[in-house]
Amino acid sequence: MWHEKNEKEMWIIQLGYHLARWIAVVSAVFCLIVCVLLIANYFQLKSVDPLGSPVLERLIQRLAERPEDQELREEIRALDLLARKAYFTRRWQIRTGSYLLIGGIAVLVLCLKSLAALRQRVSVPERAPSPERTWELKGLSRKMIIAGGSLVFAASLLFAFLSYSSLEKDYLSMAMEKMPQEARAAYSETEEQAISENYLASEEILRNWPFYRGPGGNGVAMHADPPVKWNGTTGEGIRWKAQIPKPGNNSPIIWNDQLFLSGADEEGQEVYCFDRHTGELLWQKAVDDIQGSPDEPPLVSQDTGYAAPTMATDGTHVCAIFPTGDLVCFDFQGNRLWARNLGVPDNHYGHSSSLIMYRDLLIVQYDQDTGAKLMAFKAATGEKVWETPREVFTSWASPIAVYTGTRPEIILSANPIVASYDPRTGRELWEVECMMGEVGPSPAYDDGMVFAANQFSLLAAIDVNTREMVWEAFDELPDAASPLAVSGYLFLPTSYGVMSCFDGKTGEVYWVQDFMEGSYSSPICAGDRVYWMDRNGVMRIFKADREYTSLGECELGESGWATPAFKEKYIYLRGQSHLFCIGNADESEK
Fold this sequence. Notes:
4-stranded antiparallel sheet; single chain; globular
């Protein structure tokens, strides 16, 4: 019995030994192949000059002669876009290859250690007795093979790092280096003027309400002086009230005299245009007959619904997106300019990230568990200008557009990062890993600081210059409503009705107020006042100050979850069934 048990144990050891040896051989071959590919990638990158094509040489020469030619500049930017796409593909290949090589080496080392341990317990037959010198030569050969292999592996990782680093320079910058100095100076002057111009602070943007949470999506109504007293039940302070054909949780957007909303249910999707002075429904358009749109609507939660994302406008075009993945653009007369389906998002609550625009670009945050990305489309044609993959999970937050003093940035929050992108190219500018969980609140920005928060995670205050967290907090965090940052204060709302006020620079807590009723609506600042509506339609108004001072509580008369819109002396609120304009008409308008 003991002899049989010993033979069985020895058979298992021998099987393990031979298995480890074969795995070691396979992993060694695998590592060798990856090494060859990484080294070949490096020398291929060095041997190919992306600026050496005759077409690009002619474009550079023409740009040197006519540095003011905008169309020519756009052609070079198109090549820049192609280079960026190649960059992201190459970066993924290099990074993946490096990880595979490291993993292969780890498996090889583990197998070699196992072989060394098992060799002493396995009887490996020899073909003939070997002289002492033969064993010395074998040992020397083994050491040389290990040393050579280690050198090859190290060189491969080094080449991978060098290849990764050499891809950082963009195409247009390389083209600039080949320009004559005078042409480069003329081009740089034009380019710097375009960058330094703060488009987001233009009067047209600031006097309208073009996005979710207003100009830049940041929750600050710069030129508004809204009322602090009304009652939707009695009609006091209500200028007009209009029925909304289909339900939705998105907010109104406004440009001059027109107000836009979207609505949807299981039967269909629609876009509405109202006269903001009278509440008259100017036009109502169905969003249908889009190639690739699903036959059946996706499953969504009741809290999200089929029309959660807020629309966006640039003053000429007005765009909407729905949880079906349908993206559509109209002109202000209600003519459909284009529509396309982006694919039904992999989103278990339903898509709710709102749209935003920068100049003539429509920017779409399309975060999901697989294939998350940020995209930009030409508002006039629907042509995709750029697409940037994102390594994040599903996010229900919306982007904000800010100007940091030197450049415009699009800032997004998702699990696990808060990240910034160039709105013109989609290039990632920076990222900070700090988020976790199901991110719903959008970020906020004020005076060089970005604030991002999520329930069961943290509140992160990030300096955009150093790209580091200056301070953080862990109590009373939001899960749907977004923070408000203005004039050095940070207001943090929660879905269960608690509002906190912080010093934006230091994180000092000034006050915490419990309103006892939850809210999905985000707070908005107008002048020195903050407006925050709970789910019952009660608007809480208080001072933007380091001490809590209530300025009033006003009832809408019906429940509402949407964030209000502000323009001049009026507030535009979407309730459960109606659209309200709050404020008394001026004498000149009566």
